[in-house]
Amino acid sequence: MLQPSRQPMPAESVDPDHKAFLADYMGRLHRATAVDDAIFASISATRATWLRTREQGGRVIFIGNGGSAGIASHLAIDLAKNASVPALCFSDASMMSCLANDYGFEDWIAHAVRLSARAGDCLVAISSSGRSKNILNAVAQARTMKLDVITLSGMNADNPLRNLGDVNFWVDSRSYNIVETAHQFWMMAAIDLVIGRAEYPAS
């Protein structure tokens, strides 16, 4: 039996404390993703790097931990499927457990890069704090292999990942959710810039 649909709660019934919290929260996101010429230039440079990677027969490799790993997987799928730029991320549980068991968690992604990356590839390293040892070690490995590197970080302005890439994105926020949202939004903007459209069918 169909249940009657519930009517939406009127806006004036929102708890004032909740409204104040959310207004502040949305304001933080707005400030963190405020656009300027530097962000535009970084997104444009990301597009150019990815297109050069494709022209060289390379792939874009996304890496991250936790929420950033989820973002890495999403970006790799969309870049490959929607923008026709070959891409992947190291999300296979067997690979992770094997390499972490053999080389330690701080070095497993570096060894994944060593084993799987090749000349012409681009590494996109995502770490909200910019201090994840396994991400930093993977970037160092990518540098020894002369790969292009794009970094995304946040939190403290002096985090070690922030200046290690050819293109570097930094979010001025100490909220993990806001940092991760900005990272995904900026990379999605770069993907859509490759495509040349903001709206397109799913298939």
Automatic annotation (TrEMBL):
Residues 50-201 form the SIS domain. Gene3D superfamilies: Glucose-6-phosphate isomerase like protein, domain 1. Pfam families: SIS_2. InterPro entries: GmhA/DiaA (IPR035461), SIS_dom (IPR001347), SIS_dom_sf (IPR046348), SIS_GmhA/DiaA_subfam (IPR050099). It comes from the Bacteria. CDD domains: SIS_GmhA (cd05006). This is SIS domain-containing protein. It comes from Bradyrhizobium zhanjiangense.
